[in-house]
Design a protein that fits this description.
TATA-Binding Protein, 355 residues, alpha+beta, 7-stranded antiparallel β-sheet
């Protein structure tokens, strides 16, 4: 009976007080700080003087019309993610921007990035209303529909974006920035959601989709030409002193090659992480590919002279030199073990590079 009385009491309070709903992005509290006022300065006692004032701890006046109290959006903003090779973010409160550096074999960085942007817009069926190639473009309306409020009201938001590219004369780097230039809302949920963070999130999502397209085109070598078909593969050591294969080519090139080389040698790629340069694989003699380079295989079984099991392949390097280190059960292969792998791995790398 007690629980029923409590429930009825809560219900009556809700009816009397009316429907109260706080959006997820809205801050809660009494917001007394919004009523705070500056106090008069200190006054010296009779016969005393105040020390010379300094502005070290003075709170500056806020010039911008920024939200306070319940108008503050407390949801975490969407970040710009530099997922493409050679990309980096210098994110500020006002700018949504990414920079790209030229990669080895890239004939024209600005053309490559701009082409990736246009390809992404075309794939998403976003119209381009005006364009200055490799400088600036404006999009048509980009539609975003979501449910807002306690009653899950449909809010339809349409935005237009400006994409700006800045490329210095040397052409070895370029940047893309996104800015929303126009917005209109409709639907039952109109006015239920604060637009400041939502608009910036939309800009970040728009730019992230372009960065991802750049990354995809890099991995498939679209728009990237090889500067030299020959790769010198030698046995040496990585920066940590472990036996490793050394290649006189860029990390990006080696990473892409190993994605094709490993399955051909019999390594099934279970997982990978390009940011750390790691391929997580399982070697089985039955998994070897159909390479015609039979001379590098074990004469008895036609397979590699290594035990079956889990291997981790680490690729490290820069634009000019990379190393490949093989780990078996968490331990780096010895120099003798690596020497037995040298012939087949080097041959397959050269074959994939030329093919």
């Amino acid at each position: 009976m007690k629980s029923i009385v409590v429930s009825l009491t809560c219900l009556s309070v809700a009816v009397i007080g009316g429907c109260s709903f706080t959006p997820q992005e809205q801050a809660e509290g009494d917001f007394r700080y919004t009523e705070a006022a500056l106090h008069d300065g200190l006054e010296a006692a009779p016969g005393l003087t105040l020390p010379e004032s300094r502005s070290q701890y003075r709170v500056p006046d806020v010039q911008a019309n920024t939200p306070v109290g319940k108008s503050v959006n407390i949801k975490s903003p969407i970040l710009v993610w530099p997922t493409a090779a050679g990309s980096r973010v210098e994110e500020t409160q006002d700018d949504v921007k990414v920079s790209f550096d030229e990669l080895e074999g890239m004939a024209n960085l600005a053309e490559f990035v701009w082409g990736s942007a246009l390809a992404e817009l075309s794939a998403r069926q976003i119209p381009v209303t005006s364009e200055q190639p490799q400088q600036r473009l404006e999009t048509g309306w980009v539609v975003d529909e979501r449910e807002v409020g306690e009653d899950d009201l449909l809010l339809r938001t349409e935005r237009r974006f400006e994409l700006v590219m800045e490329t210095p004369d040397h052409g070895r780097t370029t940047s893309l920035s996104v800015d929303m230039i126009e917005k209109q809302e409709s639907g039952p949920g109109k006015g239920f959601s604060s637009g400041l963070v939502a608009d910036r999130n939309a800009e970040a999502r728009f730019l992230n989709s372009i960065i991802n397209e750049v990354a995809v085109r890099q991995n498939t070598n679209q728009g990237i030409v090889a500067t030299d078909d020959s790769i010198d593969v030698t046995a040496g050591f990585n920066e940590e002193g472990y036996p490793a294969l050394t290649l006189d080519t860029s990390f990006q090139n080696t990473w892409g090659l190993m994605g094709a080389v490993l399955p051909e040698l019999g390594f099934a790629i279970d997982d990978l992480n390009q940011s750390t340069g790691r391929y997580y694989t399982t070697y089985a003699k039955s998994q070897s590919g159909l390479s015609k380079l039979a001379f590098w295989r074990d004469s008895a079984e036609g397979k590699l002279d290594i035990p079956e099991g889990d291997y981790e392949v680490q690729v490290t390097g820069n634009r000019e030199l990379t190393t490949i280190t093989f780990y078996f059960d968490g331990e780096a292969l010895s120099a003798a073990q690596l020497n037995r792998l040298y012939g087949p791995v080097a041959a397959e790398i050269r074959r994939q590079n030329q093919g």
